[in-house]
Amino acid sequence: MSARIAGLASLGLFAWITSARAQPTPVSPPPPVARATAGTPRRPTGPPAPRPAVGQPAQRPAAAPPAPRQASRLTAKDRETAVKRIQAEVQAGYVFPELRGKIVERLDRAAKAGRYDVEDPASFAERVTEDLRDESHDHHMSLGFDPTGYAAALAPPRSDAGEAALERRQASREHHGLVELKRLPGNVRYLRITQFHWIDDETGAVYDDAIRFLREGDAIIIDLRGNPGGSHGAVRYLVSHFLDPNILELTFLEGSETSQSRTLEHLPAGRLKGKPLYVLIDRFVGSAAEAFAYDVQQFKLGELVGATTTGAANNNRFSPVAPSFLLSLSFGRPVHAVSHANWEGVGIKPTVPAEPAQALDVAQSLALARLAQARGAADDAVADYAWARLAVEARLHPPVIAPAQLALRVGRYGELAISQRDGALYLVRASRADARLIPLSADVFAVEGSDLLRVRLSAKALDLLWPGLAPRHFPRS
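and the corresponding structure tokens:
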């Protein structure tokens, strides 16, 4: 479903990987290998334990939607058919039965009032989405105009045109959502996840490689900013690395049926416990991405840095609506093992509030400060943390040095010189291009283009600084 999520994210659609098919199917018990246990495309709850045989799935509308049609303009018949289909889906399976009638009536009133009398499919979908959400207060309720997703939902499941193949292609192109791994100064390891894809027998190996990289760091930052959600199978796989095996994480409720998500026992890359963990969040983090942030909060695994998330907790699935729409319908809800609640409608608050654009620097500064204060930290490591943190703090709180103060540093220092132009200082060295100096503090400057060289200026001397090495001292001439 990831391709559809990407297309509908602009509408605020946050999905726990679901099927566009209207008829749910039972879930088989997960196989023993952890990487292959993270759910199927037909279940939004990821890799559940075998479901107890209690209750029956809600009856779904029997009529199948018609074959896909490229509708550049909607007819009155198109709109009427679409509204009736949406109402039938809501009445048959919306997670809160007490709201089904109200939602159906809301759509009926709007249709009779002419609110949906537009020919543009995207405008029609936007108006329906507004009414669905206004009546339900549920971020997962939406209608998206998506001819590609609609066609995939109706194609034979095992075909190259089917939804599973579409999802696999999207996951592969996006490296299963793990789009960036890097080592930050101070050996803080960073992972950015833009979506929680899960493809059986494939995605787990991608996470294993990432975990092995993160393991070598002194602290870990996982960036979820802008992540709209995806498969709980991927969330379960990731969070298992930070918890003991077989820990109850979530219980999913669907009518009278329940299923559970527990942490995995076998993890090829091992567990990642005991390292400082920082997770970056913002208001665009939703659904399955919120589930991971909620786990971090409730299990006290680390700090959440940024802004409050969307507040989309319910489990949803997609259903095709003719001529080319996909309806996202909430059919279940999660209950967390610690809070016995979830984040629907309220979102998840950060433990460290920060402007989302600065959240990475804030998290890195916190991590470096914590590492420097850790008992038993080696002297060379502490010096490395201090070197790295000075640059981070300068980005967060840029030093302001008046031009008159900069002018006092201009002059010759042995074989080196400092010049001033365009409001900045420059390091002048023979046979080298002049290098602009960027203030990190009142007396320490970064050398533009180099992470390994800094300049410390005083009234009487210039020092060249390198991490882990003794400074070179140049008295002022």
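(Above: one complete record from the training split.) Confidence is low (pLDDT under 50) at residues 1-15, 17-63.
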